[in-house]
């Protein structure tokens, strides 16, 4: 079983994905760095998906200010 992430981590993952996307859109990256960033995006998206699954199942607390799904 994957370690449980604190609720704010989901928000942080989204921020990191947005930053990576902005970097990719800028066109300023060399091909190797762009490929590494795409791999990082895939890893971050998988982590965010796993955290969302935990939230939906009720295994984790929702992010601050968000009501739990019922």
Keywords:
66% helix, 70 residues
Task: Give your account of this protein's structure.
- This protein is 66% helix and 0% strand.
- By secondary structure, it is mostly helical.
- It has a domain at 10-57.
- Helix 1 (8-26) runs antiparallel to helix 2 (31-57).
- The radius of gyration is 14 Å and the shape is elongated.
- The mean pLDDT is 81.
Elements, N to C (H/E): HH
Helix content: 55-70%
Low-confidence stretches: none
Query: What overall form do the CA principal axes indicate?
Result: elongated
How many whole angstroms does the radius of gyration measure? Answer: 14 Å
Largest sheet: none
Which SSEs are present, and which pair or pack?
Layout: H1 8-26, H2 31-57
Helix pairs in contact: 1-2
Short description:
The chain has 70 residues and is mostly helical. Helices cover 66% and strands 0% of the residues. It has a domain at 10-57.
């Amino acid at each position: 079983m994957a370690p449980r992430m604190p609720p704010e981590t989901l928000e942080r993952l989204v921020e990191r994905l947005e930053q990576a996307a902005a970097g990719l859109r800028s066109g300023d990256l060399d091909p190797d760095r762009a490929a590494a960033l795409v791999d990082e995006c895939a890893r971050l998206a998988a982590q965010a998906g796993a955290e969302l699954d935990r939230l939906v199942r009720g295994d984790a607390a929702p992010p601050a200010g968000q009501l739990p799904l019922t």
